[in-house]
Design goal:
- This protein is α/β, with parallel strands linked by helices.
- The strands form five sheets. The protein has an eight-stranded mixed beta barrel, surrounded by four helices. A six-stranded mixed sheet has the order 9-11-12-10-15-16, with helices on both faces.
- It is elongated, with a radius of gyration of 49 Å.
- The model is unreliable at 765-771 (pLDDT under 50).
Length: 771
């Protein structure tokens, strides 16, 4: 039929049956719309029911994930975990085909067991099914719940599977999954039950063939409802039942047949063809759009793959460069460019093995730079680094012959020698090394002389393993450092015994406080003019469990060296302040407590805050506390701020052993000192040494000139006390009056009369000592 014929046919039909067809058409449309509305409501109800059943079963994933992520699997037996899954399944009224916890991808915990025997201990990461591997990889990449299905499960049924990968501390832990039997799912959602009397239905994933119902329904302008499955969707399509449509069509055919059956059928046929053509065109357009979108997606994916390939190539190149750099850094020192400790140890191991086979000689020299710390402290670490670089340059540019030269860290270096069997050869090498380092190093327009202390150990006399050789070389270097600068020392067994003894003391000293081996004794300080005790010095004692009392001169330097002096000093300060506060409650005249502190304690930025806290804790007023600074380390200007803050609190500052170490008149000028403590080495020479008597008078004169208090320690005889008092030093501390004693003993003598000890004051005769 051409256009003209179609036009005339339509025109005749319109002219003859315009009014009647208008009514019939309107009536038919109303019937179809009503049917469409009814079927749309039923389809929506089915979709909601299906979505609800899926969500109810998939909600088990949340509980399983929380159970695993919260660490409840730890310390749980398999039976307890299986019981939890069973309780969770029953409590949620789920109808899932199974719920699974798969640590490391292995389905170890499955419920219910019946019907799921085939998947017990199944390794998902090794599953040969392509769709399962795709879902597993997607779960690992997205770290979200993924769904797959329906597909044929290992149990032999069609199922829908939800799965999620779990990670703990960023590391893959395993999977949790829920599977639903598709047949039971459709029955529970009420879809299959109504298949005969309800609307015709079909279900598919977008763009995929229908897995339930007839796929052609999606090409017949069906009613569509969407089911959301987390990372995918399902489309439910439905068309009105054939019986309902047929009834309407019969009604319309009967009416139209009464008007004009032939025309009606002809027109209906023509209209039907036109409509089919339109539908086909619409389907083609939709499919064309889908293909265009898919093509765009593929193009974008291809571009991403190309970009990813380029990035991978660049990453591979950077990784290779990093590996080369790490390989270099693993065996080289960054600052100096020479080999490091790791390389030296490796070479030493190899040479020991070689020596055992060939019988060649092997010598390890271990040395560091004397007073290197002074360079760092006075001029900064950058100057210290420069000095280290100059040392390496000198050794490398010298004519010294060695096997390996390495920096161990800080200012420590090691040299490995071979074929150097006699001590004369080794000594000659060490002297040459010292000579190489001897010329001054210019830093900040100042000349610094580099001195090295060298420890020497020979294989196998000094050790048969590389660990023993390095340890004993370190011991020998320590002994060389104690003797003098720019020296060397061969290792011997006596050194090892001394080192072990020192190490034992360090280890035992670390445990001394926990073992209650440390104790505080107190020595009174007497004002001879008042004839009374006016102060007490707190002294630390160590009562070793096996060796008895150890001299403070032996263990205090060790405590400073191992960094324990801060803890011990704080313990002594707290105990002394607490004891003095207790005595204040029992005496009418408050005494002053003197506590020794190490200069190293002043390096602690929180030292003043600790002192304040101890005073507040014990209740002792600051004016009754005196701190004695021991001169074993020269004080720097950095400590001035700490001392000033202590003086602002009201604490007195005393210089102990004045005149024997680093102290000078500049101390009295620069630092907030309130008292000078005369060292006992001067006091001992009062009766025999003119210079000591002159020194004492000079120090007393200096103290008076600076307005400082003066106290002499170590006074043991009446003659010594007489001379000191006669020359203006009225405060005495020593065995002449009292020895150090425990708190209970000192409590008993606080109010003791001192007339007998001070009888020399009433004699009105002072011993005459020529000076």
């Amino acid at each position: 039929m051409n256009r003209m014929q179609y036009f005339f046919l339509s025109l005749i039909f319109v002219l003859l049956f315009t009014s009647t067809e208008s009514v019939l058409t309107t009536y038919k449309k109303s019937l179809l719309n009503e049917l469409q509305s009814t079927e749309a409501a039923q389809l929506s109800a089915k979709a909601v029911a299906l979505q609800s059943v899926i969500n109810r079963n998939f909600n088990l994933m949340v509980s399983l994930e929380a159970y695993v992520s919260a660490g409840y699997l730890k310390d749980k037996s398999d039976q307890e975990i299986q019981a939890y899954i069973e309780a969770l399944y029953a409590g949620s009224q789920a109808s899932a085909f199974n719920v699974v916890i798969a640590p490391h991808g292995v389905m170890k915990f499955v419920y219910p067991l019946k019907g799921n025997e085939d998947i017990m201990n199944w390794d998902l990461l090794q599953d040969p099914r392509e769709n399962v591997q795709k879902q597993v990889n997607q779960a690992l990449q997205t770290k979200k719940m993924t769904t797959d299905g329906p597909f044929m499960l290992l149990q032999g049924v069609q199922g829908l599977v939800a799965r999620k990968a779990l990670f703990q501390d960023g590391v893959f832990w395993g999977f949790v999954s829920v599977a639903i039997n598709m047949d039971k799912l459709l029955i529970e959602a009420g879809i299959e039950d109504d298949a005969d009397e309800g609307p015709r239905m079909a279900i598919r994933s977008p763009g995929m063939p229908a897995f339930y119902g007839e796929n052609r329904m999606f090409f017949q302008s069906p009613l569509i409802s969407v089911i959301d499955l987390q990372d995918t969707k399902w489309e439910l399509a439905a068309t009105p039942p054939d019986s309902a449509v047929k009834t309407i069509n019969i009604q319309m055919l009967i009416i139209r047949f009464s008007i004009l059956l032939v025309l009606f059928l002809g027109l209906f046929f023509i209209i039907y063809i036109i409509r089919q053509r339109d539908r086909l065109s619409e389907a083609v357009n939709e499919r064309t759009q889908e293909l265009q979108i898919a093509n765009e997606d593929l193009t974008a994916a291809n571009e991403e793959l190309i970009a990813g390939q380029q990035e991978l190539q660049e990453s591979t190149k950077r990784m290779q460069e990093s590996e080369q750099m790490l390989s270099y850094m693993a065996y080289h020192d960054v600052l100096t460019g020479i080999h490091n400790r790791a390389h030296f140890q490796m070479m030493l191991k190899e040479q020991i093995t070689y020596n055992q086979v060939r019988g060649t000689s092997l010598v390890v020299l271990f040395f560091d730079l004397d007073n290197f710390k002074m360079v760092n402290d006075s001029h900064g670490h950058h100057m210290g680094d420069y000095m280290l670089q100059k040392v390496v340059q000198r050794i490398q540019q010298s004519h010294l012959v060695f096997h390996t030269f390495a920096r161990f860290g800080g200012d420590e270096f090691a040299i490995l020698l071979e074929n150097c069997s006699s001590q004369q050869e080794i000594q000659a090498f060490c002297e040459q090394l010292i000579a190489v380092l001897k010329p001054p190093c210019i830093l900040a327009n100042r000349s610094f002389f580099i001195n090295a202390s060298i420890g020497i150990v020979q294989y196998p006399y000094g050790g048969e393993t590389w660990e023993a050789l390095l340890k004993n070389a370190d011991i020998a270097m320590y002994m060389a450092k104690k003797e003098s600068g720019s020296s060397y020392s061969f290792f011997n067994q006596h050194m090892e015994m001394l080192s072990i003894s020192k190490l034992e003391m360090e280890n035992h000293l670390r445990q001394s406080m926990d073992r209650n081996e440390l104790e505080i004794v107190y020595q009174p300080q007497v004002d001879c003019m008042k004839g009374a005790i006016t102060g007490v010095e707190a002294l630390l004692r160590w009562n070793h469990t096996t060796k008895g009392y150890i001299s403070p001169s032996d263990f205090i330097p060790v405590a400073e060296e191992i960094g324990l002096i801060d803890v011990i000093g704080e313990w002594v300060l707290r105990g002394a302040c607490s004891q003095m506060k207790a005595w204040h409650r029992q005496t009418t005249e408050p005494l002053r407590i003197s506590v020794n502190i190490s200069v190293k304690q002043l390096h602690d930025e929180r030292f003043v805050d600790k002192v304040i806290a101890i005073l507040e804790e014990t209740g002792l007023e600051a004016r009754y506390l005196e701190m004695e600074i021991t001169e074993n380390v020269a004080m720097q200007d950095e400590q001035m701020g700490v001392l000033n803050r202590l003086r602002q609190l009201g604490i007195s500052i005393s210089v102990d052993d004045f005149g024997t170490h680093y102290s000078s008149l500049s101390y009295l000028k620069r630092f907030p000192v309130t008292k000078i403590k005369l060292d006992q080495s001067f006091v001992r020479g009062v009766q025999t040494d003119d210079k000591d008597r002159a020194m004492i008078k000079a120090i007393i004169s200096v103290a008076n000139a600076f307005g400082l208090q003066m106290i002499a320690e170590g006074v043991e005889t009446e003659e010594q006390a007489d001379f000191l008092v006669a020359n203006g030093c009225h405060h005495i501390q020593g065995y002449y009056f009292y020895k150090p004693m425990k708190p209970a003993q000192l409590q008993a003598i606080l109010n003791e009369e001192l007339h007998d000890k001070l009888a020399f004051l009433g004699a009105n005769s002072v011993h005459n000592y020529d000076i």
